[in-house]
Specification:
The protein has about 425 residues and is of the alpha/beta class. The chain has 18 helices and 15 strands. The chain starts with a helix and ends in a 7-residue tail after the last helix. Bound molecules: FE3-S4 cluster (F3S).
Length: about 425
Amino acid sequence: MKLTDDEKAMLDGKEGIGRQRAMELLVRYCKALGAERLVDTNNVATAINATNPHQREWAARGDFDGVFAEFNVDSPDRFEMPPLKAFTCHLIGAMDVGHWQVLGVPERLVDLQRQSEAFFGPRGIQLMQTCTPYQVGNVPVKGEHCAWMESSAVVYCNSVLGACTNTEGTASTGAAALTGKIPYWGYHIPDNRFGTHLLRVECEVESMMDWGMLGYFAGELVEEDIPVIDRVGKVPNLIRLKHFGAAAASSGGVEMYHVAGVTPEAPSIDAAFGPRRRPAQVIKYGPAERRATYDNLNSQATDRDIDFVMLGCPHESIEQVWEVAKLLDGKKVSANTQLWVHTPRAIKQVADRNGYTRIIEDAGAHLMSDTCPAISQYVPKGTKVVATDSAKQGHYLPAILGVQCWFGSMEDCVNAAVSGRWNGAL
Ligand code: F3S
């Protein structure tokens, strides 16, 4: 593979052992991928989980340099973390330290989390703590090369923003943060970004729930390919595209999609498929497919008494938090049910100022930030039946926590939290 002079200097150790280990990792990664070169990046989204069981021992000794070297660069030896070369934000984390008692997190882990933030924050890991960095200021532009983790963020980055990233991992993003480099491969290459399957929409797809179901349907069929959505009625907004992508990345491994006439690389169907290609398959999404997708998402749930309602997967926008506050205003969550709403901390501050947090808390629900149940694996004690408005969360929670999960609209979910019963319907 070809390395530039600055890459060779890092590989030869001229910028210290940390960058050398990071370059070694990237060279190994390129070889495994068949990538011939690296590309510059100044936009990394990563995660440092100093509270996870494997890393606690290091963190408990206060050795956060060791945590970073071992777990974020996969280095065989410890090194002192050098200054980052790339702008790097932190994705969702293991807990909300403001709600640790509600979550049921042991206090010693809360202390570790605080120590971890105190170490990594001043070193340039931007502590956004959300799976939706694009909602709180990290909005890469079309064509910008990024190194992001988190499937729902990756698919939004490629498809809606037109920036370029593969689904990276903890070690490759750690190495990218130290070197400002990532393999030039996959979605960094323009030719790999064209559509593969045409998805013709033949029913109304309007609400956030509709877009989540359409994404879930698309992901199951195209798996890791690139669907091109045709014939949508109204232009979908951030919330709808966020849910479409998150769902498609869960039921399949979709990292990129196009919505004809909407997303930046699909001004037309022809442009979405590029100069040489025709769709490998044309797929219809009509009323029958919509119904089947809804039934599929609800197929594991039978018990209608709801223990826990989860909203905010991916993390809520301020518009969604406002919507929850309006739905809850003057109501009370059932004594047998808990309602947790998840949003980035920066958006929670707006919700605090707007009075939405107070409305939500007065109803007995919690507005949380920094984490979610699928990542933290904290849910209310004894939870057996969950309701959510997220196809992604509905996909993962039964598998991760062995619970039943109902899927529906935000309104269905808030109603379930208030009554304690699931009465959602298509
Ligand atoms: Fe975000 Fe957690 Fe959902 S990371 S996309 S809220 S599963």
